[in-house]
């Protein structure tokens, strides 16, 4: 319900509701018998507008039927009160809604068809200059349709840019982490090969000095031997610590990936035993979650996407579930095909299923 009212409070929807309220005020000039019928028609049109504007993506058929019924109700009101002059405003509202849902090549012919019927109704009512009225109304419809179309394109471009930016941030996080791991490994090698080698040589020389009768009893020689041994052990411990990689920071990368999306909300759990050091494997996990986020938002209208990454034997198990509801049967498109290709490239396995609530469940197994 919160989602419903949030959508209804969007600026374009509020503008439409304000326009419908203004049309409602114009009905007060009608006599009471006509007022009741006209108010009922306007209420029906308003209800259809609300269903399309704020209804869930799961109501696809309901929203389609509502979009087709809106011009029929508007034209019926025009036929019933042709001389009132405000009912045709409903056609402008419907045009804006049509261009927000359908592509222009589909919306434009349907709008023209509705205007042809509108013209015939005005001619039947013996109004003066019906063509002029239709052309004026068509101008307002074109303005409303173009404004909504370009606003929708700008919104889609903005969302796409945000997703691309999130993708870059997530990839940069992985690359930076990988670069730090490479630098740690380089430093570890330098310490082992250079400092470790020279300290070993120093220790052997001190041992040789300690074997000399004149120096065997010197406290300084014994102290130097002890310090050399301790320093060599310390360097070995540092080298081992540098080589013990913590793995790439998947948590930060995945959070950056989901940040621009208003929904679904990412619910992420990564087991402490999971350490991904291979950038290719980390990139595979990143792309799987990215595709799951896109599918959940676009096709299932999910509010939450749960991602669980854990160690299972010698493998890393990735389980992804959403709380949405798939429309129809589960079909594998290009996105799922891309998932399988990435999993195959790292010699893993992928299994798809649906949850008891109808959401999508993805289980991927990758070699650790």
UniProtKB/TrEMBL annotation:
<dbReference type="InterPro" id="IPR036890">
    <property type="entry name" value="HATPase_C_sf"/>
</dbReference>
<dbReference type="InterPro" id="IPR003594">
    <property type="entry name" value="HATPase_dom"/>
</dbReference>
<feature type="transmembrane region" description="Helical">
    <location>
        <begin position="12"/>
        <end position="29"/>
    </location>
</feature>
<protein>
    <submittedName>
        <fullName>Signal transduction histidine kinase</fullName>
    </submittedName>
</protein>
<feature type="transmembrane region" description="Helical">
    <location>
        <begin position="64"/>
        <end position="82"/>
    </location>
</feature>
<keyword id="KW-0472">Membrane</keyword>
<dbReference type="Pfam" id="PF07730">
    <property type="entry name" value="HisKA_3"/>
</dbReference>
<feature type="domain" description="Histidine kinase/HSP90-like ATPase">
    <location>
        <begin position="283"/>
        <end position="367"/>
    </location>
</feature>
<keyword id="KW-0812">Transmembrane</keyword>
<feature type="transmembrane region" description="Helical">
    <location>
        <begin position="134"/>
        <end position="151"/>
    </location>
</feature>
<dbReference type="Pfam" id="PF02518">
    <property type="entry name" value="HATPase_c"/>
</dbReference>
<keyword id="KW-0418">Kinase</keyword>
<keyword id="KW-1133">Transmembrane helix</keyword>
<feature type="transmembrane region" description="Helical">
    <location>
        <begin position="35"/>
        <end position="52"/>
    </location>
</feature>
<feature type="domain" description="Signal transduction histidine kinase subgroup 3 dimerisation and phosphoacceptor">
    <location>
        <begin position="183"/>
        <end position="245"/>
    </location>
</feature>
<feature type="transmembrane region" description="Helical">
    <location>
        <begin position="102"/>
        <end position="122"/>
    </location>
</feature>
<dbReference type="InterPro" id="IPR050482">
    <property type="entry name" value="Sensor_HK_TwoCompSys"/>
</dbReference>
<keyword id="KW-0808">Transferase</keyword>
<keyword id="KW-0902">Two-component regulatory system</keyword>
<dbReference type="GO" id="GO:0016301">
    <property type="term" value="F:kinase activity"/>
</dbReference>
<dbReference type="InterPro" id="IPR011712">
    <property type="entry name" value="Sig_transdc_His_kin_sub3_dim/P"/>
</dbReference>
